[in-house]
Records
---
Amino acid sequence: MAPQTSIPPAANILGTIGTICWCVQLLPQIWRNWRTKSTEGLPATMMFLWSASGVPFGIYAIVQNFNIPLQVQPQCFCFLCGVSWAQCLVYGRKWRAWTVTLLYSCILLVYAALQAGLVFAIRPAYARGTEWPVLFIGIIAFIVLLSGYFPIPFELIKRRGRVVGIDFIFLGIDWFGAFFSLVSLVAQEEFDALFGTLYALCCAIEMSMVASHLIWMMRTKKFRKLAKDAGVTFDEHPECVAWQAKGIDLGAKFRKMVGMKEKADKDADARPETSDEEEHVEAVQMNGAEDQKNTVPNVVAPRPEP
């Protein structure tokens, strides 16, 4: 693995298309969140992890000397994912807007300082032939970005395959962004296997989300027709709601299980501990009480009459 020495025009063109897609991919999602004032079904964890992945992603792209569009791409991706995450806090968790704005501004400053510092720290060593720091940063970016998809299967299982809260225009643009970025890497003189795998997995995961929703639509065709005939939406028809409610909320089950365990631990910690001496005294007192209970009180016998 070595930094790119020259970038073919085709790689620049394809990378530019991918960057444009990833610069605007989240705008439909952000608009949807703002218009509906809801982020139901959009995992805040996914948005935060995607935003955080922009830092190692950007470091790796800059040090590897990717084409300029691929170096700009992580910065835009990081910022827009952070905006969507902030919306999840405001609309989903009811945080105050100014609090979220201040928090996000501080996070962006930390991201910028961290990325600049690590680029200047790693680049000289990489130029001397020390490759492991760059590879390590790339692996971190790979893991963090893909970890953002982890809540998606739980949401799909909970909603019986239905995609809720995630804009399909966003998914489509995101898919094209990953695809053209992947092709851009192929067009370079040296293909980067790590990020090529990352882009390919992003495409595969997003296609699986679309496929899951299409299967849900086929399964609910009868119910959606019932709702349409009744002049209501799917989520307003009683039969549709009853069918949809049969999904399994694995996250809630896990939180409940952990909560029960924590409660049991707290109850155990709340019970006072007794020493061996105290236990001995208690045992003696209990035995004394039992003896006293079972003992018949002395009775004075009457004298016989003469």
---
Amino acid sequence: MTSSAALPDATRTDVETLWDYHDMHHAVQSADVGIGLGSHDLGVATCAADLYHQGVFPLIAFTGANAPTTVSRFPRGEAVHYREHAIERGVPAEAILIETKATNTGQNIEHTRELLAERGIKVRSAVLMSRPYQQRRAYATCKKLWPEIEVICASLPMALDDYVKSIGDPDRVINMLVGDTQRITEYAKRGYAIEQPFPSDVRSAYERLVQAGYTSRLI
């Protein structure tokens, strides 16, 4: 593993394979609401603000309490900090709802669905915004828990190397990619998400990275 600010050459191809796998490659289209999933990555809120200004959706719902990895970065909660960031980027406060109790992706979806229903907001389509490597898991989870809506996945457009530089910790990014890859199959088995294709090249890349020691985010 590496402690430098760049991906190690020995694992680059495998990391790129997983990075591309988790990107759903959806074309962003107009939707009833944009849902920003809480995490350590403020780029989710930036993405939401950018798409709002492009007229993709008229309303943003940010969802997220805290996880051990975010409490120091976002002490008032992920959704609260996301909202503040979006307002700083020119989104009107009245165009933002927040859900502050969710601590995992399933709860993000369930609690946001409940919040919108309580407000009488009918949702037929949503743009689900997340970290780049969370797209596939977010999609599979949403289609399990909220199957009747059209789901489009989006993230802040960023190349892998630029994303690694923005986080400043290649090991963290690789470990999160490996962890999310495991969750694609494990969560489907546990009934948390719908099944997703798992091509052989993705499986092989995942297994090599596990063997290389990137296991801190495995369940």
---
Amino acid sequence: MADKPAIVLVHGFWGGAAHWAGVILELQRRGYTDIHAVENPLTSLQNDAARTQQMVKQIDGPVLLVGHSYGGEVITEAGDLPNVVGLVYVAAFAPDAGESAGQISQEHPPAAFSNIAPDSDGYLWIAQDKFKESFAQDLSDEDAFAMAVTQKAPVGSTFGDTVSAPAWKVKPVWYQVSTQDRMIDPDNERRMAARMNPRKTIELDASHASLASQPAAIVDLIDTAVADLAAE
């Protein structure tokens, strides 16, 4: 692959496309010119995968999908399009066929599981006063508070939506583990990464919000993926 692929960034629960701000700016600094960030509705895996595929289909050329958290499940479901050349997982879920994010979490509950609660409309929220310690303990108080207030709550049933045909079985994969993750157990991340047989796995001393606290390291992994693909 002579030219850099388009980068499509896919956010997860409790955040939107703006969670990728640091990564986006770092990609731009490194010469990436075709950068996109999906804004998923977080209403169902089917809806989120469809929204992601809509964006990918608008791009004329190769696409590298990058998913954070539940965004990893989205790219797993949405990533088997002809122009998707690889999948990068950032502290992310990577379910197998028939698995859901909720099932994986229940098998190995993360440290902050008890800080998530539904509202009367069925949306799941992280308690504002617990957001930093749960999701972003390595960010400043100010940045974590802004994330807490602007968190995008998913419909609770989305946690139970299952993957049909995992794209990681047919696409190259790279994975980042957050060793201080309190939203997905780090050992769960290692387990999901290992079974995908990734081209490379990195571990960062980071919270679940590694995309915000260590954007340069995330872009290093994206660079590695792009270089690996270019060498094929």
---
Amino acid sequence: MPLKIAFAASRAPVAQTARAALIGRYGDAHPAQADVIVALGGDGFMLQTLHGSQHLNAPVYGMNRGTIGFLMNEYGESDLVARLEAAEEAELNPLSMTASTPEGQSHKALAINEVSLLRAGPQAAKLRITVDGRLRMDELVCDGALVSTPAGSTAYNYSAHGPVLPIGSDVLALTAVAAFRPRRWRGALLPKMAKVRFDVLEGDKRPVMAEADSRSFANVSSVEIESEPSIVHRILFDPGHGLEERLISEQFN
């Protein structure tokens, strides 16, 4: 039977043009009936597609029609079916975030790349860090902090001088953003199943926002983060260009 492909594209004109061309060549299946979903855009749209299709059985194959494409394959129209049939699959578990506010509200979100806390005012944030119920740092003064998965370790985490994590490693990166005190603290590597809690200190004059893959929540008082093994995101890559190879190559660029 022919491969049933569903095409999704970002709003960018170049992505919409590509989608129309591909649908004209291969047709367009409904995502619920598709064997594979092809996402056209950049990494941000790829994350959006993965979140939106996590209830479906189809893996997602990205083709770069955006400005950043670490999670994407090169764009091409003529041999798509052959590329999909030969593609390598990577499985990713997202992070689960629960952010609480001083008013007692609770916000939940999933993050494939990272959960980050960022100062939302002119003064540096003050955070207390607990891991698996054990206090690990009384006070971190910083512009922010984040917890990253291996898949997200070359994104914001890497820009904040965090480590690149091999895709098969069962670890998370906890990375400070512009740490002021302790000044030389560069973060920690934690087991994948660790439960991390940040408490915001002096939140009235040092407000903090939380983000989970760009979903933002203002004025948080605490954030709890842990892996969500019950959810599996399946991503396809061209042979020899999978996440493991990309993560290694990134460290030599």
